[in-house]
């Protein structure tokens, strides 16, 4: 297939990518299933920009805003922002932030944490995956930090530059040094699946189809 790596990955689906990565002997690349999309059936693919945060109830409101706006300013256009919030109480995405990221060309946002203003975010069509919803914000409580530094979400190590694919089945993370090979193999698998599907729809016995294509 033609196009850049992120665009090619976006034409794949997470289950096929998973099967390819499993066959390659890779492990620990699927994010927790509790992290779900705000927009059903949405697809998000691209290079990761990672950061994290921590809770500090003594934090000044100004410091909360400075940490968060640093993220909004430094996330590279064309990236998928991924956040390890290290928190389960507040929202780590809201309407103005989502609109800002969309305007700056960020492909989408994935957080092991919360989100608010969800009706607005759905309305503008900005892809967000999160663990929970809450109206509570970060001000005076939570600080964004570690911009561009490696994070861990559910036992999956993620570095800025890794490729990410999120769809209605879940989220997979492709190591940067293997991403091109994984996408190429996935495209081959999807082509074979189409041939298998056609054979079965044309009347071939399912087991015979498996034996012919070695895929199901």
Report on this structure:
It is a single chain. The chain has seven helices and twelve strands. 36% of the residues are buried. It is 36% helix and 24% strand. It has two domains: 5-176, Ribonuclease E inhibitor RraA/RraA-like (Glucose Oxidase, domain 1), CATH 3.50.30.40; 182-213. It has helices spanning 5-10, 14-23, 61-74, 95-103, 118-124, 179-201, 206-213; strands at residues 36-37, 44-55, 80-84, 108-112, 114-115, 128-130, 132-133, 142-145, 151-153, 156-158, 163-167, 170-174. The two termini are 22 Å apart. Strands 1, 2, 3, 4, 6, 8, 11 and 12 form an eight-stranded mixed β-sheet that branches. A two-stranded parallel sheet has the order 5-7. Helix 2 (14-23) packs across helix 6 and helix 6 packs antiparallel against helix 7 (206-213).
């Amino acid at each position: 297939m033609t196009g850049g790596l992120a665009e090619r990955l976006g034409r794949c689906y997470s289950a096929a990518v998973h099967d390819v990565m499993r066959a390659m002997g890779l492990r620990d690349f699927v994010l927790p299933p509790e992290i779900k999309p705000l927009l059903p059936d949405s697809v998000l693919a691209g290079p990761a920009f990672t950061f994290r945060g921590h809770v500090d109830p003594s934090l000044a409101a100004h410091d909360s805003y400075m940490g968060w706006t640093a993220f909004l300013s430094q996330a590279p256009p064309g990236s998928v922002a991924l956040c390890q919030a290290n928190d389960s109480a507040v929202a780590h995405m809201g309407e103005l932030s989502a609109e800002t990221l969309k305007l700056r060309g960020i492909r989408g946002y994935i957080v092991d944490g919360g989100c608010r203003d969800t009706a607005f975010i759905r309305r503008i069509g900005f892809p967000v995956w999160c663990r929970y919803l809450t109206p509570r914000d970060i001000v005076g409580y939570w600080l964004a930090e570690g911009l561009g530094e490696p994070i861990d979400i559910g036992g999956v190590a993620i570095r800025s530059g890794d490729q990410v694919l999120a769809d209605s089945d879940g989220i997979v993370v492709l190591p940067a040094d293997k991403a091109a090979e994984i996408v190429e193999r996935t495209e081959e698998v999807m082509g074979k699946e189409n041939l298998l599907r056609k054979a079965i729809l044309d009347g071939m016995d399912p087991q015979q189809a498996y034996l012919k294509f070695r895929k199901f």
